[in-house]
């Protein structure tokens, strides 16, 4: 295995270790949605705290999130992958 293949493999492994999972986010939404548990999981700390203190915007944010979670997971994963690839010297397009 040459150096480039090794770096790619390490970058992919690093990404897999931080990648977020949509089913997990939905499970957290079901169990802790009113207090923003799914948003904490996705790294949206500011919004999570807002949900925590407003009980999910009196439930409105919580209901809206059921339609937004999948897209948010994809966006978080895309950003994390790009950051990791850039850290290894790759441009992820």
From TrEMBL:
Task: Extract the InterPro entries matched here.
Answer: TM2, TM2D1-3-like
Where does it sit, as one GO cellular component term?
A: membrane
Give the subcellular location.
Answer: Membrane
Organism, scientific name: Actinoplanes derwentensis
Alphabetically ordered keywords of this record: Membrane, Transmembrane, Transmembrane helix
Q: What is the name of the protein in this document?
A: TM2 domain-containing protein
Matches recorded under PANTHER family: BETA-AMYLOID BINDING PROTEIN-RELATED (PTHR21016), TM2 DOMAIN-CONTAINING PROTEIN DDB_G0277895-RELATED (PTHR21016:SF25)
Q: Which residues form a coiled coil?
A: none
> TM2 domain location, by residue?
20-67
Task: List the membrane topology term(s).
Answer: Multi-pass membrane protein
Write down the superkingdom of origin: Bacteria
Listed transmembrane segments: 25-42, 48-70
Q: What is its main location?
A: membrane
One matching Pfam family: TM2
């Amino acid at each position: 295995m040459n150096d480039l293949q090794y770096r790619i493999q390490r970058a992919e492994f690093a990404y897999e270790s931080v990648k977020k999972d949509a089913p997990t986010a939905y499970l957290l939404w079901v169990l802790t949605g009113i207090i923003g548990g799914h948003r904490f999981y996705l790294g949206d700390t500011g919004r999570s705290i807002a949900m925590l203190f407003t009980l999910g915007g009196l439930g409105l944010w919580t209901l809206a999130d059921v339609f937004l979670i999948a897209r948010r997971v994809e966006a978080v994963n895309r950003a994390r992958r790009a950051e990791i690839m850039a850290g290894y010297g790759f441009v992820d397009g």
